[in-house]
Structure formats: C-alpha cells, structure tokens
C-alpha cells in the first residue's frame, strides 16, 4: 500500500488522537542551539512591487501543546509571537477554503529554465485563487521542542506519519493531529477540493540542527546513518503526500551576523548534508525574510547553486523580478498578526475568529 493510502487509512481507523507512551532513553537530541529564527516583516522603502498572481502564506511548526508554550518565562513571548496553535491552524484552513483559496504546487506554478522563470497558467476550478502554503524551520530547534512543538516527525513500519513529542519527565507520545502535514491531511479528507493536482505546500529546511527532528548534522557514524534513514522515510512520505522542499539556508544566520565567506561555507554544508536527503530544489526561502537578493555576491552564489525562485517575508503576496527570476513576498501567519489583528491578514482570515483563547490575554514582545 502506498504511504498516502496507509496514512489516510490510519487516520480513518485511529481517529484524531493517538498516543503511545514509552520511555525516552533512546531519543537522540540534536546538538547545538542557535539564535531564535524570527521572520522580519517590513515594507521595502522606495519600491513598488507587483502583486503576485499566486498568494503566499507561511507558518512555522505548530504549537502542539499550548500549555507548554504559554508559560510565563523567557520563551513565552517568542512562542506567542512567531507561532500559531493546532487549533488556530485548523481554523485558518477553514477560512482559506471559505475564501476560495486552493493549494497549488510550486513546481507547477513556475516554469523554470536555466535562464528564466515564468508563471505557468493553471487551469483552476472556477472562482478559485491559487495559494502556496509554506512552512519554515521544520527542523525542531531545541527551544521549539522545549516550548510546545512536537519533537520530530517519524514514519513507522506501516508508513504512518507520526508526530513524536518528548514530554516533561521523559515520556514519549506519538500523535496524528499535532503538525501541519497531519492537520492538512485530515482537512483534505473533508475538503478534497482545497488542493489542486494533489498540492500540499513548500517545506523550508535549514541544516544546522538536523531536519524534521533528526540529527542529520552530526559527525559520520552509525548514529548519523540512522538519522538519515529516518529522515528519508519522513521525506518520502511527505513527498508522496504532495509536499515540496526548499532551502532555508544552512545556518539561519542574519546577513549582519554571518558574512559572505562564512555563509558560503555553511551553504556548502546544506548541499552536502540536506540536499542529498531532500533532493535538488530550485526554491530558496531567505531566513528572517532578509533581502539577500540585494547582496550581489550572495545572489550570484545562490544562482550558481541552482536556486531560481526566492521567497521572503512581507505584509503582502508581493512579486519582484531580478535577472528574470521571481522573488515572492510571503505573509507570515503568526501570533503577532493574530494578536494585533493585522489588516493584511483579512484577505485570508479574521484574526478574531482564528484566535486561540489559550493564548495569554496580553503579551509584550521583546
Ligand atoms: Zn526561519
């Protein structure tokens, strides 16, 4: 049975929640911790971008356990600011469907040649508006795991995609309804017309902390081989479902912090460690939404590495062109936008209706 069928069957049979508890002793933890990735939303002064013919919205890993995210302390504000909960994401999907959006595959949206990229006409059902849903940092950095996201994705021997979480005290639980790909599959069971040609979305991965919760950045050896095999199983399942993949840089460092030479070295690690797992991709998602396309050295290096379609973070689904290659603004779907009811979100949803009441009533962002 194909993984998709197995997954759907499992959803039907097992239902929305499934947890098994075992002890955690064998759970390998990714090494190292980097500064928190935070998207930057800003209007680029002095420029009048075009509006993209395809809407772009992005999320981070979901807050799977709000009671672990919204705890007074140093991490509460960043969890509130940059993430949405499972319940909010479910409401977002309902809203997107109601507003006429339909998911499309980046690989179908763009016709890519060596020298240029064009938007390919899509024969969508009448009244539908194309949307690329992207998901950044599906790596599960330590601060995320410690504050309410799941810990990793894994696929079992039956081909079922689980979200595994190491809970306080070391108990491990597996769930079928705590992360974007799972929630989306369940939504599509009831709303198959929300996806065009089996589209799901674009997953943007860094490499410094491994991918999908597996420590693929570690030194060669049996543990690395195991992590790579586990990650490959997840990737194969996600691809079979319709997900596509992008680079999100290796190190998720700002241009200011990581100068060109160090960035270039770390990008080689993405090519060596991540690309063999996810496959070559023409898609690049700038960390923090930074405008690296204005940095000629980085731009040339990214082009030389084979990247052809670039994604940033902006208040609108903007479109720019450089060297016949598109640069797309993506609207962040996060707690900050919901809390402050950003008007730009209204084309997608009503923040008041999506809002998860488990969030703190007030919050100051640092
Ligand atoms: Zn990021």
Description of the molecule:
The protein is of the alpha/beta class and 366 residues long. It has one domain (54-141, 178-354): TIM Barrel, CATH 3.20.20. It contains twelve helices and 16 strands. The protein has helices spanning 3-14, 66-69, 76-82, 86-98, 106-109, 142-145, 180-190, 222-241, 260-278, 296-304, 335-339, 351-354; strands at 50-51, 55-59, 101-103, 110-112, 117-119, 129-136, 152-155, 161-166, 172-175, 202-205, 244-247, 283-285, 309-311, 318-322, 325-328, 331-332. Strands 2, 3, 6, 10, 11 and 16 form a six-stranded parallel beta sheet that branches. Strand 8 and strand 9 form a beta hairpin. Helix 4 packs across helix 7 (180-190). The protein starts with a helix and ends in a 12-residue tail after the last helix. The model is unreliable at 1-46 (pLDDT under 50).
Using brief descriptors, characterize the structure shown.
alpha/beta, 366 residues, single chain, binds zinc ion, disordered N terminus, 16 strands, six-stranded parallel sheet, TIM Barrel
Q: Name the CATH homologous superfamily.
A: Glycoside hydrolase/deacetylase
CATH topology: TIM Barrel
Estimated radius of gyration: 19 Å
Return the domain count.
1
Under CATH at level 1, the class stands as: Alpha Beta
Distance between the termini: 49 Å
Return residue spans where pLDDT drops below 50 for at least 5 consecutive residues: 1-46
Q: Give a quick account of the main beta sheet: strands, pairing sense, barrel closure.
A: 6 strands, parallel
User: What value does the average pLDDT take?
Assistant: 89
Please, how many helices?
12
Helix content: 25-40%
In what range is the share of β-strand residues? Answer: 15-25%
